[in-house]
Amino acid sequence: MRNRSIRFENITKRYHGDLVLDKLSLEIPSGTFFALLGPSGSGKTTLLRLIAGLEQADSGNIFLGHQNITHMPIYQRRVNTVFQNYALFPHMNVFENVAYSLSLKNVPQKTIQEKVTKILTIVGLEKHMYKSIQNLSGGQKQRVALARAVINEPDVLLLDEPLAALDLKMREKMLIELIDLQDNLQTTFVYVTHDQFEALTVADYMAIMNHDGEIEQVGTPKEIYEFPISTFVAAFVGTTNLFKGVLHMRSDHCRIEFVGLGMFEVVCSQEKEWLRDGNTIFMSLRPEKIDISKTPLTGFSNALEGIVQSIVYHGRSTQYNVRLKNNEIVQVFEQNEEHFPQETIDYDDPVFLYWQKENVVLLEK
Amino acid sequence: MKIKETINTFIAENTSFIFSVPAVLWQLLFLYVPLFLVLYTSFKRAADSNWLDLTFDHYRTVLGSSYFFIIGRSVCIAAGVAFLCLLCAYPVAYFLALKVNRRWKNVLLFLLTLPFWTNFLIQIYSWVFVLDQNGLINMMLLKLDIIKEPLHMINNTAAIFFVMLYYYLPFMIMPLYSILEKIQYELLEASMDLGATHWQTFKRITLTLSMAGIKTGVFLVFVPAFGEFAIPAIIGGGHHLFVGSLISHYFLIARDDQLGAAFTMISGLVLLICALFFNWFCTVPLQKTQKESA
């Protein structure tokens, strides 16, 4: 099995003097579906373009497997890209677009025909082989772009926000197809997106980039979501409630104090140097980890009281925005499990919020 | 009331037709009618003959005369000018459209149109002062002792060719620029990403996508260059006959309207054949070679 990992070593990249990436290092494991998630301007697309060879790093090295590809010309890299706006050649039909990379080499016409037919069958476009690009729907264009990029069996497939132009249903469908395709090809997929839902859905591993072009965290989607290592990651991936408070560590228990709200139980078993008595730290509490009730409940390690400020109905869940005593707002998601719930919560209702101390994450910054 | 309504609906339903009436009338009056008059004149035996006394004689005279080769020469020169214009203009347009940033682009485009702010004749005459025996170039070369005798740079076909090239270059750059500017840079990146070298990308993507601009540019240069009259007259000193100068000779000097009209019709026909051939060449054989290489 070929080594199709990608390694960035101290990559620095400037645009017109602006530092986009500063001594960035990252390893993308071979044969994985890897998502680069970050806000606009975080340099994730730049990272992708560096792999493709569409940009040159100012310093540092990029390895594909054991090969240093930092200065390899773009057309020699065994890397192909699915561009954000597809970048299909308007003067060629579907077949010619897909056959483009093969036609550049001295591949016999018969082989081209076979390969293109095969790949178009995989993406479900065999009936549209000789259609002009202009007559395709957004989803079909997406498939052509995909077929064109994988026909050469690249070591790495780069996807630059490939689903941004599609509607939600189509996007969900394409995500599943992408996962299947990656399973079949065993190519390393690098998927750039600012959409956390897409990243969580497709990725084996993901890297979160912040506004400064730094990698905040690398991990599996579950690790990233459940155990973010910074408030940035916690807030960027999914929705969360962030509290700032002072830590009180005793030999037998650990609590955090929020101004105007009191003390709350937390778990401080991690060996972190910032987990020290008297330190000001953050607590991330995901909305779905909170139980909301109009009547007091037992069996929870923590409870808060508040008034329902607003209610947003999402279909599968309902979001309650609850105002606390210190005027902070806490978001709570409740699954809509029943058609006729026993208690209905309304605006201005006083409610209790409950959560278990194991379900929060403590963060240094 | 009813009449007003009818008129209103007629206007509403035929807006585009009504708006096109002035242009159509203009074309009819000042293009098709004169063209027909030329056609009619070319068949008329003599200026004072009966209006139904038609003949092919003038065509026979023109086709038999030594002037006929002038049409061929005009075609060659116009084609040469168009081709050289294309060669010179393409890199400029490419650079302007794809490599220069926004701010400089506007400045450079402005500079490109600057010659048009000067009258056409002044532009052409100024070349006389540059190329003349006592002109700027000869003066400088003599002063610098590079030559002993002034060079003959004017009153020859090469000078005509050169000045035509100068004058028609912007007409080629503009359509090329406007079409190249529409090419998404992403397409070139995609091509390279798929393994095409710079040259392959240029050939398969840029050049093919700019074909429409090439066509427009070649027509914009070839057609007026074919009938060019002022440049050969001024730069060529009137010794080098072109279609344009010959037509004016027939009508204004020889005063033989019938022969002039026949010559005009024949040269028009040649132009039409050239245009059709070029159009066919751009769509059929060129695309075929591209398909084969693709």
3D architecture notes:
- The complex is a heterodimer of chains A (365) and B (294).
- With 365 residues, chain A is an alpha+beta fold.
- Chain A folds into two domains: 6-235, P-loop containing nucleotide triphosphate hydrolases (Rossmann fold, 3-Layer(aba) Sandwich); 239-363, OB fold (Dihydrolipoamide Acetyltransferase, E2P), CATH 2.40.50.
- Chain A contains eight helices and 20 strands.
- Chain A has helices spanning 44-52, 94-104, 109-122, 138-150, 168-185, 196-202, 221-226, 231-236, and strands at residues 6-15, 18-28, 33-37, 59-64, 67-68, 79-82, 156-160, 188-193, 205-209, 215-219, 241-249, 254-258, 262-265, 280-285, 291-293, 302-313, 317-324, 329-335, 350-355, 361-363.
- In chain A, strands 6-7-8-3-9-10 form a six-stranded mixed β-sheet, with helices on both faces.
- In chain A, helix 5 links the parallel strand 7 and strand 8 (188-193).
- The longest helix of chain A is centred in the middle third of the chain and has 18 residues, at 168-185.
- The radius of gyration of chain A is 25 Å and the shape is globular.
- Chain A starts with 5 loop residues before the first strand and ends with a strand.
- The model of chain A has no long low-confidence stretch (mean pLDDT 88).
- With 294 residues, chain B is mainly alpha-helical.
- Chain B has two domains: 1-43; 61-293, MetI-like (MetI-like fold), CATH 1.10.3720.
- Chain B is built from 15 helices and no strands.
- The longest helix of chain B is centred in the first third of the chain and has 32 residues, at 68-99.
- Chain B is globular.
- In chain B, 24% of the residues are buried.
- The mean pLDDT of chain B is 87.
- The interface between A and B is medium-sized, with 27 and 19 residues.
